[in-house]
Amino acid sequence: MEKKIIFVLVEHHDKKVHPVSWELIGKARELAAKLDNSEVWGIVLGDELENICNEAIKRGADKVIYVKNSRFNRYINYEYQTAIVNVVKKYNPEIFLIGATLEGRELAGMVATKLETGLTADCTGLDIVSDNRTGKKILAMTRPTFGGNLMATITCPQHRPQMATVRPGVMKSLPIDPKRKGEIIVENIELKDLKKLIEFLETIPVKTESNLQYAPVIVSGGKGVGGPDGFKKLKELANLLGGEIGASRAAVKAGWISDEYQVGQTGKTVRPILYIACGISGAIQHIVGIKESEIIVAINKDENAPIFDIADIGIVGDLHKVIPALIDKLKQLLA
Ligand code: FAD
């Protein structure tokens, strides 16, 4: 029986891999365990990226397709599309996973269109299920829908590969296993016949202050914080705990904090060790972004606020009193 292949695109910038790619290799291993006779393959495009190929194996890939060409060190959508479509046609993967990053979202759509297959964007859950009609094992792709009030599970039973993009921070990466062995397959894909559509001028990095998705501790503020000044105290607490600040959409919409800090369905999905929700009511669109946190602490003056339904520790009280008290206590402990 031919092996079923799960492809994972390994996204990189300046020779650094986007963590979502390792998260997807971790998830792909889980899926492969449920899909008979299957393997996880990473796809790496670029040059001088042997270290990345080896790391992909140590993080769970059985094989890596290394499309070796220095032109791929820089992402240009139609060049990547050409290369990836070629590789997919050659190896016929069953499933293809891509990070829902800025690039990944664009590329996944372009690749799926060319391959005439289905794509579920922005998934928060993936599983292997049995197709009702054929009994065959297929990919079940779950994502929020109807403004986050419902979760939809989507399948693509008739076309291959079954494609999904997954938000960063949702899945868990596997630790590096230095003893893991695998195979690197080098592919040469010529681009010289490709009509030039984009002239590359320069890269201007986006200035970002927040590192929310991978912060171990997040102190997040909502409408209850009361204004931009309220976030100063939250920042002080976050600094003492070695974490970052986050926010609800209501706080962002009020103009109290920039949208790069927004957590939730239309913001970032986070899974810190500790998430402290201050003055956040606990709307479903916020909860979907924080539910994988290990410990959720909620501070809210309304004892009936829905956030208490999912909190591990609830503090009913005025955050303007609770947070300074927490800061004082922590300072004493750390002194
Ligand atoms: P509120 O709901 O107004 O709650 C404020 C809370 O603060 C209350 O519970 C109150 O009791 C408490 N409070 C007030 N004063 C104090 C005090 N002094 N001390 C302690 N507690 C106090 N929301 C997100 O967060 N992220 C998203 O990504 C997101 N995406 C959305 C997408 C769609 C399509 C839609 C329709 C909505 C989305 N929302 C999102 C909005 C969401 O539905 C809520 O409106 C929002 O999360 C509410 O923010 P909040 O909890 O800060 O404000």
Range of strand content: 25-35%
Summing up helix and strand content along with how strands pair, one would put the structural category as alpha/beta
N-end to C-end Cα span = 64 Å
- Strand element count: 17
Give, in order, the helices and strands. Answer: EEEHEHEHEHEEEEEEEHEHEHEHEH
Small ligands present:
flavin-adenine dinucleotide
Main β sheet profile: 7 strands, parallel
Which outline best applies?
globular
Low-confidence parts:
none
Give the proportion of residues in helices.
25-40%
Query: Could you report the average pLDDT, rounded to the nearest whole number?
Result: 94
If helices are DSSP runs of H or I spanning 4 or more residues, what is the number of helices? 9
Widest sheet: strand ordering: 7-11-6-1-4-5-12
The whole-angstrom Rg is 22 Å
